[in-house]
Amino acid sequence: MRAHLYIEGGESKEDQIRCREGFRKFLEKSGFKGRMPRLSACGGRGAAFDDLKTARADKKAEDFIALLVDSEDPVVDIEKTWVHLNGRDNREKPVNAQDDQALLMTTCVETWIAADRPALRKHCGHRLKENALLPLANFENRNRHDPQESLIKATRDCSNAYAKGKRSFVVFATLNPSELNSLPGFARIIRILKGKLQ
How far apart (Å, rounded) are the C-alpha atoms in residues 40 and 5? Predict the structure, then answer.
């Protein structure tokens, strides 16, 4: 069986390399070392959708080909991911695709980064303004701008202040998956990957 994840992220070639590396390290820490899927950082979400569609055209029945993108907005039913993507992005579910082939970071990768406070403390040091970060209760139900803005405020006095792109992938690679288990969208992704990556 082939397994391949098409990931939203990395506008430049350098950022795509950092994106793949960050996700590789994170997935290895999540228990997938030795059974890793192939990872493609596709740039924008539209490119990730298009790459997935192309890959599905020559997939074998046993292959696991999936999309990993930000949900951008809170998700009504985390198990009905194609309904969400159709409503938000006007993207039709590919023929014969299942909901477990659309993996959503709810609402964005910054939600995961902001949820791992120990990783942020280690990355940013004593200048991190942790009280500027949002409470973790119902964290995945917030507008995507909320965790992004809170990360910028909390790290603005740090020498390595948060910024999308290069720095986001560097921080992402340091995340501890066990710190994210309370996030239902994250838990769903890990459950699906554990079932598929035997």
Answer: 6
Q: Is residue 151 one of the residues assigned to a domain?
A: yes
CB 177 within 8 A of CB 183: no
* Token reading at 36: 């890793």
Is position 13 within any domain? Answer: yes
Report yes or no: 120 and 87 within 8 Å, Cβ to Cβ: no
Task: Write phi, then psi, for 40 (nearest 5 degrees).
Answer: -125, 120
Contacts of 5 (CB under 8 A, 6+ apart): 23, 37, 38, 39, 40, 66, 67, 68, 103
Asked whether residue 116 falls in the same domain as residue 103, the answer is no
Measured at the CA of 110, the angle between CA 70 and CA 143, to 5 degrees, comes to 70
d(CA 198, CA 195): 7
pLDDT digits (tens, 9 = 90+) for 47-70: 999 999 999 888 888 899 999 999
Distance CA 28, CA 40 (A): 16
Q: Which of 12-16, 127-131, 164-168, 184-188 has the lowest mean pLDDT?
A: 164-168
Domain count, the chain: 2
Find the domain containing 104 and state its range. Answer: 3-108+174-196
Q: What is the pTM of this model?
A: 0.94
Do 79 and 118 belong together in one domain? no
